[in-house]
Amino acid sequence: MPATDQELSFETKVVHVGQDPQQWNSRAVVPPISMATTFQQRGPADHAGFEYSRSGNPTRSCLEELLASLENAKFAMCYASGLAATDNVVHLLETGDHIVAFDDLYGGVGRLFRACAMPKGIEVDFVDARDPQVVAAALKPNTKLVWVETPSNPMMKIVDIAAVSAAVKKGAPQAILAVDNTFMSPCFQNPLQQGADIVIHSITKYINGHSDIVMGCIMTNNLKLHEKLRFLQNAVGAVPSPFDCYMVNRGIKTLALRMQRHHENALKVAKFLETHPLVEKVIHPGLESHPQHLLAKRQCSGFSGMLCFYLKGGLAESRKLLSALKLFTLAESLGAVESLAELPSVMTHASVPAELRARLGISDALIRLSVGIEAVQDLIDDLDQALAASQK
Ligand SMILES: Cc1ncc(COP(=O)(O)O)c(C=O)c1O
């Protein structure tokens, strides 16, 4: 038997870490939902680990312990959403500080930087972080944060985390490298091992996996950063409810199984689309046609259910395809058991400035799929009939 949790395999950790029944008097096999907002103290300021549920909650603690272990991190903190987690990182900065951000990001993160950080005097440069030299050239003495997403949403671009980390450590040792690992989940990619200072997840996606909870988290190995972020988690107060933590603690147990199925299904769907005459191009890091396929294979141990493709035609054809789908649901979000399809240009990435959308290739013919865990042939058949319907 391994001596520490960290020596256990991912599939075992995801079921057992943070779940020890001996934590509870009742020895319940799953952590109970602890709804209490406040906790009895033995004497003034003499508490048993919990004071008030915003600063700490037993159900949330179990989940945080488990999440830390999955990223091989010392610390994890949960937030009310992925954006609340991102906002806590932005709170580490002050007026006059500088952020270097990947130009291909989930629209909401870009919006937070543009609409909330920049007006407060924080400078942000959006660059193509696929090239570590481009990141290095953007670093300045006041750069405090480098923010990347890999694979990126929606263009599935890959950032070489180790190379960017080396560039940041050399060119701006005062800066934090943050990696949004939402698309891969801790199952397929562990950025802290590759030199990131913090990892962010929208738990809303793969980690919870059932389209019924909005939550985010941050993991780190850096004690000082942990202390600052833990302070902000309480001071800013965007924490998740104990019920939501219970739900994530339940959904996460099948993460390894789900990710394997997402990986297999999406790769088969990508290969089907790649041969389809009505498809212009498929973007999936697991395809040899992806320009960063070798880097993706080196950096990740699998691929998720995410891919996008260019349909032949424009907005009218995309609309027809999306409304003809029967199994894929037309909806924002991603990473859950059911397959979803969306049009980033008018949905998830509508807040990206039009000029940047055009430069990134987020056109009205770009369809994003989140391939679920259904029988893959049913999904392929659904896409096949919808592709035919798109040209009628
Ligand atoms: C890659 C990525 N990061 C962050 C977020 C924001 O997370 P949330 O919606 O949980 O606030 C999203 C949401 O779609 C996302 O796709």
TrEMBL record:
Signal peptide residues on this chain, from the entry's feature table: none
Listed Gene3D superfamilies: Aspartate Aminotransferase, domain 1, Type I PLP-dependent aspartate aminotransferase-like (Major domain)
Modified residues (N6-(pyridoxal phosphate)lysine): 205
Required cofactor(s): pyridoxal 5'-phosphate
Enzyme Commission number: 4.4.1.1
One Pfam family, short name: Cys_Met_Meta_PP
Keyword Amino-acid biosynthesis included in the entry's annotation: yes
Pathway in which the depicted protein is active: Amino-acid biosynthesis; L-cysteine biosynthesis; L-cysteine from L-homocysteine and L-serine: step 2/2
Keyword Transport appears in the UniProt entry: no
SUPFAM superfamilies documented for this protein: PLP-dependent transferases
Biological processes, Gene Ontology terms: cysteine biosynthetic process via cystathionine; transsulfuration
GO molecular function, one term: pyridoxal phosphate binding
Keywords per UniProt: Amino-acid biosynthesis, Cysteine biosynthesis, Pyridoxal phosphate
Name of the top EC class for this enzyme: lyase
GO cellular component term, pick one: cytoplasm
InterPro entries cross-referenced by the UniProt entry: Cys/Met-Metab_PyrdxlP-dep_enz, Cys_met_metab_PP, PyrdxlP-dep_Trfase, PyrdxlP-dep_Trfase_major, PyrdxlP-dep_Trfase_small
PROSITE patterns to which the protein is assigned, alphabetical: CYS_MET_METAB_PP
Family statement: Belongs to the trans-sulfuration enzymes family.
Protein name: cystathionine gamma-lyase
Gene name of the record: LOC100905034
